[in-house]
Specification:
With 643 residues, the chain is α+β, with helices and mostly antiparallel strands. The chain is built from 18 helices and 23 strands.
Length: 643
């Protein structure tokens, strides 16, 4: 074993010699609150968050608490972090490190504020100055234990409640005069369990505000009796009682022995604090960390072996520091900005949302997949930046933005002609056929839709956003995978049963074609009369396909050609994947006027009875999804990822 491993083993092994109350950073989650803010300008949210948290981390390492803010550029951002008064310096660092991994669950980087209460520390990020807040009646929390070891005897319960009241009153009275912190206990006796209490105000409050906050918290926590435990979590303070001793302040009987142990432990921790923190966090989330590291650390090697690496500061300046005026679009994976490089090249810079396993997965996919493929109907990846405070992808700039801006924006300045629409359809089909074909391994996009088809200066279609793409071994008939994509474009066998093949892209392409030709968005599935797919199918059955064409074209299209293309779209959206053509066959049907278009035999709407291999053994989860999707109130506008 390497020497470093011995140090880690020593730290964990020696922990068995300590009292359970010693060296415990108390990282159990007591409560978390996520609130949507009213921030309208989010251009600098990520950079402001990183700056503030960097300052907070530095101060916590020194003082065990910190607050910091940034007011320019907008939006203003305020943050506070504080450890409870009984935690050692090292335990404080551990608690803070854990809180920093949980807080992004509130999507604070997407302008959601967050409050996180761990049993040993607190962290908050918000878009207004909250430092003097004591109570927040609308959002303050209380958490009571479900179980109780207190006797069912009414007299015993009253005695226990009195004991809880006394210890809570004591810490409420002492803490405001003791830098906001106090602990107190009453030993067991008379058949009634002992009670231990802790009170902690945030250091931004003065003595009076601290007392006000704890008085309110005491009332809430006291109402948890006869439960074994109660926690009150206010905007300005934290209070807890328990029948188990949970804090680390030593009693008089063992203070000398405990002081020696702490001194020894601190000496070891001083030399190995980084190892200890890494080992602890790794111990808590080992499997998840390994998955993230395996995917993330593969990216730099790919980048450094090529000419894909961009300097972060260069891209920051190219986008005028991600100014709102340069913003091209906003999606689930991040924002896209127009950038001008020093050599005059115009690029699109995708600023990625991060801090989740899915982000690492999507980033790796885009770099690994797109950097190896080139096609006139696929958006080209020029490079990426992975060493700055956030990760960026750099694409070729496509000036005419996305297809949905031409089809669905009211009073659009440009109406696509029939030939332009046909060219977009053919280009998209050729791009997909390339992904499904000559790459050796099939690449399935999984999120073909109008907003992911970009148009260049010649209105040539270019497929974008490969964050959800997956490689499929050609020897496998299908791949079971977590469901990801956009409702309304997802193939029924994939949505209901999780079976992913290239035919899922074919289905999405068929929906896209129907939208392009009809000028209508397939927005609501459950409302049959409003479904584009259902409307076109009905017109097909009554020999009136040409009537489905967008009225904005004012009849300026060849009826027979329009019917053929609509028929191809219906072939692509048939319920059974076996009945859908491949994308190479679709390209042939679109480009060869002499090619006979087969007759579609299945209606293109989601029905579990029409999916292949249907059986009564379908899982409850899938049935639940199916039932929800047939609800008339379900909209198909959102992107989902069920992993």
């Amino acid at each position: 074993m390497r020497p470093l491993a011995y140090v880690v083993l020593l730290l964990f092994g020696s922990s068995s010699l300590f009292s359970p109350s010693v060296g415990d950073p108390r990282v159990s989650e007591a409560g978390i609150l996520c609130l949507k803010s009213n921030v309208t300008s989010t251009a600098n949210v990520i950079s402001n968050f990183l700056i503030v948290m960097r300052e907070v981390a530095a101060k916590v390492a020194e003082d065990r608490w910190a607050y910091d803010s940034i007011t320019s550029p907008l939006p203003e951002l305020y943050a506070l972090a504080q450890c409870h008064g009984d935690l050692s310096h090292d335990d404080c660092l551990l608690c803070f490190a854990q809180s920093r991994t949980i807080l992004p669950r509130c999507s604070v980087l997407a302008a959601d504020s967050g409050r996180l209460y761990l049993d040993g520390c607190f962290i908050r990020s918000d878009y207004y100055n909250f430092y003097n807040e004591t109570i927040d009646p609308q959002h303050d929390m209380v958490k009571c234990a479900n179980q109780t070891s207190v006797s069912a005897d009414q007299q015993a319960q009253l005695q226990f409640a009195d004991k809880v009241d006394r210890v809570l009153r004591n810490v409420s009275a002492v803490a405001p005069k003791n830098k906001g912190f106090a602990v107190f206990e009453e030993a067991s006796g008379g058949g009634v369990a002992g009670v231990y209490a802790l009170a902690q105000c945030w250091n931004t409050l003065d003595e009076n505000c601290c007392g006000e906050c704890l008085e309110n918290a005491m009332i809430k926590a006291r109402n948890c009796t006869p439960g074994d435990e109660g926690r009150a979590m206010n905007a300005g303070c934290f209070m807890r009682y328990s029948t188990q001793r949970f804090y680390t302040v030593p009693t008089d009987g063992d203070s000398s022995k405990l002081g020696i142990i702490i001194a020894i432990a601190s000496s070891i921790a001083a030399a190995t604090s980084l190892v200890f923190i890494g080992a602890y966090v790794g111990y808590r989330k080992l499997s998840k960390k390994r998955e993230v590291q395996k995917k993330f650390f593969g990216v730099p090697a790919i980048v450094r072996k090529s000419n894909l690496n961009f300097n972060y500061e260069l891209l920051e300046k190219a986008t005028n520091f991600f100014d709102d005026s340069r913003k091209l679009g906003q999606g689930g994976a991040g924002s896209v900005f127009k950038g001008i490089l020093p050599d005059g090249r115009v690029v699109a810079v995708k600023r990625l949302v991060f801090n989740t396993v899915q982000w690492v997965d999507d980033f790796y996919n885009e770099v690994n997949l797109i950097s190896g493929i080139q096609h006139k109907n696929l958006v080209g990846l020029l490079g990426c930046s992975i060493e700055g405070p956030e990760s960026l992808l750099v694409y070729e700039y496509v000036p005419n933005r996305s297809l949905d801006q031409f089809l669905f924006v009211k009073d659009a300045t440009r109406i696509l002609s029939w030939q332009e629409r046909l060219n977009v359809i053919s280009g998209t089909a050729e791009g997909l056929a390339y992904l499904h074909g000559p790459c050796g391994v099939k690449i399935i996009h999984r999120d073909i839709k109008s907003s992911n088809v970009l148009l260049d200066e010649d209105l040539t279609a270019k497929i974008a956003d490969f964050g959800l793409a997956r490689c499929l071994d050609p020897e496998k008939s299908h791949l079971s995978t977590g469901i990801a994509g956009t409702l309304g474009y997802m193939a029924p066998e994939y949505l209901v049963k999780g079976k992913l093949t290239e035919k899922a892209d074919v289905y999405s392409f068929g929906v896209l074609v129907l939208e392009i030709l009809s000028g209508r968005k397939n927005s609501v599935f459950g409302q049959v009369s409003g479904s584009v797919l259902q409307s076109v199918w009905k017109q097909y059955k009554s020999n009136g396909l040409a009537e489905c064409i967008d009225p904005a074209l004012k009849g300026k299209f060849p009826a027979s050609e329009a019917s053929n293309v609509l028929q191809i779209a219906l072939l692509c959206t048939q319920a059974s994947p076996d009945l859908r053509p491949s994308m190479s066959e679709v390209v042939e049907m679109l480009n060869d006027q002499e090619c006979t278009v087969p007759v579609p035999t299945q209606p293109p709407f989601l029905n579990t009875n029409l999916t292949p291999d249907d059986s009564s053994s379908s899982s409850n989860t899938n049935t639940g999804i199916s039932n929800q999707l047939t609800n008339p109130g379900i909209s198909f506008a959102s992107t989902i990822s069920l992993r």
